[in-house]
Amino acid sequence: MATNATSESTYIAYELIDKPFPGLLNKHRRRLIIFTCFDFCLIFLLWILFVMTKSIHWKEELMRQINFTNGRFFYNSLFDLVILSTFRCGALMICYACLKLNHWMPVAVSTGVTTLFDIPKATIYFSQRHAGYPLEFAIVVCSLLVAYIEVYLYDSKTRSLISVCNFQGRTSDAMPERCHEQSASAYITAAELTTDNESDNGASFLQKSKYDTTGLLESPEWYIEKAERALNHGKYWRSQLCSWKKVGDSPLLLTHVDQLYGKVLYVKQIFPVQLKQLFSVLYSQAETCPMWHKEVLKYKVICKLSENVDITYSLSAPSLRGYIASREFVDVRTVELDDDCITIGSISVPYGTVADGISHIRGESGPNVAFLTAIDENSTLFEWFFNTNLKGNLPRSLVQRSLVSFMVNFIKNLDNYLKATYG
């Protein structure tokens, strides 16, 4: 049994990605709702300050401001702008917080009504006097300004980002119900998923027993816990894909800035191979990666911690015509397996020197998590969250371009290798 299996899996079904989770609002909607509350508070406070400072008899001025029966209410009072702000706040709260609409019409209508009301109001109100108080100007200007800021805060990409998850086909019909309710008994060992040929030839990583453990700087349990946390990060990111930014179509590429690890890239591709075959290439035969992906010069397992957790060493090739030199990475890697879904996770860990005769800059990988999901007998969905820090004083734009190029080339090379190997 996999050592990191729990009684209640934190796996999140793939078909739930294409819509927000019930009861949750994305950050753009929360920001808009908070600002609408600020809109009302700002206009109301400015109006109160205006009433209190206009005259020493502020109670009489207050009654005059809210006296709707006065025939010249529209000409002499600014309380109608407070009422307008109240309705604007209430309408947007109902539409985007309660009804959770994903349409620009409510905020467009509220801004349009505010514009049509404020401009005639300002013209008539200030034409009745030669000069106005600063707070009077502030109330009118702020009422119009915050309405347009609400239009700006409305994120028009939210709906398109939600639909991004449907790109390249849905898998909800292909995934069985047990993907929603996994248990510890559903997990199998990685050795059970290796092919017969791999077992006979002794090529499976899980059957190797002699590794160098002298480089460990912490206890094995610490490394295993680190690997499990990396898997949890990947599962959390997978549940938040609807709010990520789309940067590419072929393959589908999304990006997001994580508060802890910085920029994270996500790629999705469907490969015409069986789940076991894709798992074999990416895990059991990972040391052959430099043969089909030239941007990786070396990949090897250097330490075995448990049945499904090991320490790996990888060396990247120089990129951008040598501007970015080779980087070495020492990661702890783990795998979590089910009949129709396999999760492979890794993250950089402290480790001693890996002697190969050449000194390289050691990069630092954040949680790198790959989800392999069987769609049918001959196709598998591949999802990969990639986060890394190349270290060194490199321009951010060049690093971003290099990482995107690495992921795109990885998908293309992997696809070519799978077609050549499995037809």
Automatic annotation (TrEMBL):
<dbReference type="InterPro" id="IPR023393">
    <property type="entry name" value="START-like_dom_sf"/>
</dbReference>
<dbReference type="Pfam" id="PF10457">
    <property type="entry name" value="MENTAL"/>
</dbReference>
<dbReference type="GO" id="GO:0005789">
    <property type="term" value="C:endoplasmic reticulum membrane"/>
</dbReference>
<dbReference type="GO" id="GO:0140284">
    <property type="term" value="C:endoplasmic reticulum-endosome membrane contact site"/>
</dbReference>
<feature type="transmembrane region" description="Helical">
    <location>
        <begin position="135"/>
        <end position="154"/>
    </location>
</feature>
<dbReference type="InterPro" id="IPR002913">
    <property type="entry name" value="START_lipid-bd_dom"/>
</dbReference>
<keyword id="KW-1133">Transmembrane helix</keyword>
<feature type="transmembrane region" description="Helical">
    <location>
        <begin position="73"/>
        <end position="99"/>
    </location>
</feature>
<dbReference type="GO" id="GO:0005765">
    <property type="term" value="C:lysosomal membrane"/>
</dbReference>
<dbReference type="InterPro" id="IPR000799">
    <property type="entry name" value="StAR-like"/>
</dbReference>
<feature type="domain" description="MENTAL">
    <location>
        <begin position="25"/>
        <end position="203"/>
    </location>
</feature>
<keyword id="KW-0472">Membrane</keyword>
<dbReference type="Pfam" id="PF01852">
    <property type="entry name" value="START"/>
</dbReference>
<protein>
    <submittedName>
        <fullName>StAR-related lipid transfer protein 3</fullName>
    </submittedName>
</protein>
<dbReference type="InterPro" id="IPR051869">
    <property type="entry name" value="STARD3"/>
</dbReference>
<dbReference type="GO" id="GO:0008289">
    <property type="term" value="F:lipid binding"/>
</dbReference>
<dbReference type="GO" id="GO:0031902">
    <property type="term" value="C:late endosome membrane"/>
</dbReference>
<feature type="transmembrane region" description="Helical">
    <location>
        <begin position="32"/>
        <end position="53"/>
    </location>
</feature>
<feature type="domain" description="START">
    <location>
        <begin position="244"/>
        <end position="423"/>
    </location>
</feature>
<dbReference type="GO" id="GO:0099044">
    <property type="term" value="P:vesicle tethering to endoplasmic reticulum"/>
</dbReference>
<dbReference type="InterPro" id="IPR019498">
    <property type="entry name" value="MENTAL"/>
</dbReference>
<keyword id="KW-0812">Transmembrane</keyword>
